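The passage that follows is intended for readers who have already worked through the single-chain material. We present the inputs for a multi-component assembly, then the predicted structure in tokenized form, and finally a short commentary. You are encouraged to pause after the input and sketch how you expect the pieces to fit together before reading on.
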Amino acid sequence: MTAPQPHGSDRPAEPARPHGSTRPGGRTARTRAAVLAAAWEELDRRDFASLTIDLIAQRSGVHAATIRRRWRTVEGVISDILSQHGETIPVPDTGSLRQDLHALARSIADFYTPPRNQRLVEAVVTAAVREPGAAEVLHNVFGDRIRRVAVMVERAAERGEVAADTDGEEVIAALGAPFYYRLLMTRRPVDAELAHRSAEAAYLAAVEGVFRTGRRAP
Amino acid sequence: MTAPQPHGSDRPAEPARPHGSTRPGGRTARTRAAVLAAAWEELDRRDFASLTIDLIAQRSGVHAATIRRRWRTVEGVISDILSQHGETIPVPDTGSLRQDLHALARSIADFYTPPRNQRLVEAVVTAAVREPGAAEVLHNVFGDRIRRVAVMVERAAERGEVAADTDGEEVIAALGAPFYYRLLMTRRPVDAELAHRSAEAAYLAAVEGVFRTGRRAP
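Having made your guess, compare it with the prediction:
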């Protein structure tokens, strides 16, 4: 899981974009790329608390008024980085649910190892507590990520590794939860052992039927 | 798991008390009880963002200067509520690890069902991001809670339900993590199904040896 890479034209719809024009691939996409890259670079140098729209404007060369119109707040920009990052996660497809879950857990651990990325999640969670708008973005961004990755559980159900009525989103949430608990609650660094245990615990629970809904699959 | 009940004399040491005198059971304990109860009541009426030391002073009848001297900030008061709550958690002891874990998960779900308690955890996590002092309190409070409850895994090891080198604190963290993920990341309410799944997943992983350290027990 690498740093979010702003990428250009012919992108799919941007689910968490709060505002702005709809011209795809043109100036709008370039503006988004420049602003998100600038905010990302600034977060490597400073705490979230000292990040301002004006600093992002200076580094990106985009007018502060334009940034305010499209993202409203620094929290809006940060949430959009997270959203973009979610769009670029590769979904493992090794042919084995156990291996897919371990690959996903390792990619989450890798992502949250640099302090900058720990600050990113802290910033987004803090913003969500203070602003209903940011809370909605967080809810949507994490919902989208989980839904995208949950396809690996659907594939496992098709292969007969787990029951057909397994709730894939809950499997993915169970795998991801210990990372955020570690970062936000016990406030210790994530590591490879946490990744191994999270993946293995989610896998065992999934094959044992813990996440079955009791509803027949469509 | 009920609301934190300030209680009076002959209490054990207060691990997260930031400051203050050391006279146990006297005026100091009464002051703490009054201040924490007042903050708790205020949180039922307002958001954390609008809670101030002066409001707590008004409701508790304790001078604002006294509150500032002992807890420094609103975050300090909130963290102390959390600490006090942790001290009063009953540790289930049913004779079965599975039942103990389910009882614990239900008590966590019950605690985080009222919106006030959701706001409590949001407030503490937000404070920890902004203030190193609050982060240390959060780290210590959650560390203490986990260590206290992890004794149920030690008992299970003595009964032969899990391997002797099972890391009890990691079992408890695995059980608790999905609640905080739900509250802080996907921002949906916790419910009985989440409690059931979290307990069952932690139990299965524990008995399968996922949380073994590979070190011999002392």
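Commentary: Residues 168-186 of chain B form the longest helix (19 residues). The domain at 17-72 of chain B is CATH 1.10.10.60 (Arc Repressor Mutant, subunit A). How closely did your sketch match?
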